[in-house]
Amino acid sequence: MKTVYSPEHTLRNAKTELTGGQLVTPFECPQRANYVLDAIKLAQLGDVVMPTQWSRHWVDSVHDKNYLTFLDTVWQRWVNAGNQGEAIPNVWPSRSMPSQRIPRHIEGQLGYYSLAGETSISEGTAEAAWVSANVALSAAELLNHGEHSAFALCRPPGHHASNDQFGGYCFINNAAIAAQKLRYDGAHRVAILDVDFHHGNGTQDIFYRRDDVLFCSIHGDPMVAFPYFLGFADEIGEGPGKGFNLNIPLPRGTSYSIWRAALCRAITKILSYGADAVVVSLGVDTYEKDPISFFKLKSNDFINMGQTIAEMGLPTLFVMEGGYAVEEIGTNTVNVLKGFENPTG
Questions:
Q1: Among 284, 345, 259, which residue's Cα sits nearest to residue 310?
Q2: What is the full DSSP assignment across 176-232?
Q3: 237-289: per-residue pLDDT in tens?
Q4: Mean pLDDT, rounded, for 6-26
Q5: This prediction's pTM
Q6: Is 198 one of the annotated active-site residues of the chain?
Q7: What per-residue confidence (pLDDT) applies to 345?
């Protein structure tokens, strides 16, 4: 399996994250991609190739253009306003302030375009996000050229980025862009299977009213897990998209046997949908030692996860999402990909 990767992910190297009432070193850091890349090379999984440059219209197709302009300019505007630290939102249009007017001041715009306050924006963030999108698009193109599978080693991740909001370490929704490209290039129906511990709220938002992209997510119960306000089982889509959104929230301490049953349920939905291709939002933060999650999957479980996904027999694009600052992120990611390539063991 070919991996698409760019060293320019290191342009995103924020120093602050707001968590537990403190500013800490972010869990989403350059070392994550390094762990995965090292494991890919050690396992001799396949060629590692650089992405090509793609027109930004692919990103425009799933994101609001005003939001993308904000993303491109926020850092310089933040610095020009005299701020010394990284850009962290601190005010939002709350339920008691439902105005849809976008403030001119950069502080107000940060709140308008963010869904959470933990993710700071630093110099190079936008540039890294655009490179990450190119990684996903280049990997999708490999499927168009006849590859049965490919891995987009994206960083920063993307599945929390909605049409016009960033947060959860995500700025541009790589999986959504890849799915959109596969649709435009001839796949009549595409399924997105999100196996990250956290619900892919951004991906759901983008496709919630569409029937040509099915979204299935297995994740921690949003009553007690980020992003909290989306990801419930009764969210099934709206309008033309009704019935094409499947959320399977699971409780604290979920073991692999329970998690795999949820995966099989999602796969049944994908097969009955008649998908021509699958995009897997591959988060390995379901691992028992992940620092910000609460499932109990072990490293060997990720092999079976890949084998089970392979049973669908569909062209499959894996897009890197979460899995945080533990070295096993590399082992667990490669285990999924190796399991997919060797489904009989």
A1: 345
A2: HHHHHHHHHTT-S-EEEEE-SSS--HHHHHHHTT-SSEEEEEEEE-TTTSTT-SS--
A3: 999 999 999 999 999 999 999 999 999 999 999 999 999 999 999 999 999 99
A4: 96
A5: 0.98
A6: no
A7: 66
Residue type at 276 in one-letter notation: D
pLDDT of residue 179: 98
Domain segments of the chain: what residues?
2-63+122-341
Retrieve residue 192's tokens. 């997105």
- Written as one letter, the residue type at 64 is D
The type of residue at 283 is G
Residue 122 has pLDDT above 70, yes or no: yes
Tokens representing residue 342 in the block: 């060797």
The CATH number of 2-63+122-341 is: 3.40.800.20
Using alpha carbons, list the distances in angstroms from residue 284 to 20, 181, 332: 23, 24, 7
Residue 85's CB: how many other CB atoms inside 10 A? 11
Task: Give the C-alpha separation, 107 to 91, whole Å.
Answer: 8
Q: Among the options 160, 198, 199, 219, which is catalytic?
A: 160
- Residues 231 and 204: their CA atoms lie apart, in Å, by 8
